């Protein structure tokens, strides 16, 4: 039997200016915490939530399905860039289907910037210090350096086994 829960990992961004998104967060500048769901009962309807750190109100939710690509479980912590107001999540690709496994969302309103299918990903993404490259390691053993502006591949390397745990960037 599946379970519905938050993934236990979150990212935080301070001073996010929100527009007319509705609810108690509209037209304000807040510190947000970003969390993804880990619904094992579905491979297509998980979600990413942006919550006000002050009171826990949900400011926006991005849900797979409908006009957006489907979204499988989101097992790791996101990477957050205040430079371009983007939060990056990774997840499963529903058993290797064409479903995306890397997501870039606008932190201000939750709109999709880009997504990619790299196969199943269980380790959290990592940004370089200039926030121009996102490092993603797949369960099939490939480490990717992705361009943060559009998700295109800068480079990739087969490391010979599943990438698990945190990807460390030096310098």
How would you describe the overall organization of this protein?
The chain is mostly beta strands and 171 residues long. Helix content is 0%, strand content 41%. The chain contains no helices and twelve strands. The chain has strands spanning 6-17, 29-37, 47-52, 58-63, 79-81, 86-90, 102-106, 112-116, 126-127, 133-137, 142-147, 153-158. The strands form three sheets. A four-stranded antiparallel sheet has the order 1-2-3-4, with no helix packed on it. A four-stranded antiparallel sheet has the order 5-6-7-8, with no helix packed on it.
In short:
The protein contains no helices and twelve strands.
Keywords:
single chain; 171 residues; mainly beta; 4-stranded antiparallel β-sheet; 0% helix; disordered N terminus
* Spatial arrangement of strands, main beta sheet: 1-2-3-4
Number of strands: 12
Main sheet specs: 4 strands, antiparallel
- Rough shape? globular
| Percentage of residues assigned to helices | under 10%
Mean pLDDT: 80
Taking the alpha carbons of the first and last residues, their distance comes to 44 Å
Counting H and I runs of at least 4 residues, what is the number of helices?
0
Radius of gyration: 15 Å
Strand content: 35-45%
Secondary-structure-derived class: mainly beta
Uncertain regions: pLDDT < 50 for 5+ in a row? Answer: 1-9
* H/E element sequence: EEEEEEEEEEEE
Secondary-structure topology with pairs:
Layout: E1 6-17, E2 29-37, E3 47-52, E4 58-63, E5 79-81, E6 86-90, E7 102-106, E8 112-116, E9 126-127, E10 133-137, E11 142-147, E12 153-158
Antiparallel strand pairs: 1-2, 2-3, 3-4, 5-6, 6-7, 7-8, 9-10, 10-11, 11-12
């Amino acid at each position: 039997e599946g379970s519905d829960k938050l993934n236990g990992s979150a990212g935080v961004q301070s001073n996010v200016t929100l527009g007319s998104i509705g609810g108690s967060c509209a037209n304000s500048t807040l510190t947000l915490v970003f969390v993804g769901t880990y619904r094992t009962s579905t491979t297509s309807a998980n979600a990413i939530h942006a919550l006000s750190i002050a009171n826990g109100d949900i400011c926006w939710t991005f849900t797979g399905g409908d006009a957006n690509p489907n979204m499988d479980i989101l097992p790791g912590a996101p990477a957050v860039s205040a430079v371009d107001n983007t939060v990056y999540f990774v997840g499963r690709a529903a058993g290797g289907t064409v479903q995306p496994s890397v997501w870039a969302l606008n932190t201000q309103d939750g709109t999709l910037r880009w997504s990619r299918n790299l196969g199943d990903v269980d380790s959290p993404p990592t940004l370089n210090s200039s926030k121009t490259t996102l490092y993603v390691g797949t369960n099939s053993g490939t480490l990717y350096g992705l361009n943060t502006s559009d998700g295109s591949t800068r480079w990739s390397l087969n490391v010979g086994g599943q990438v698990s745990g945190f990807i460390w960037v030096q310098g």
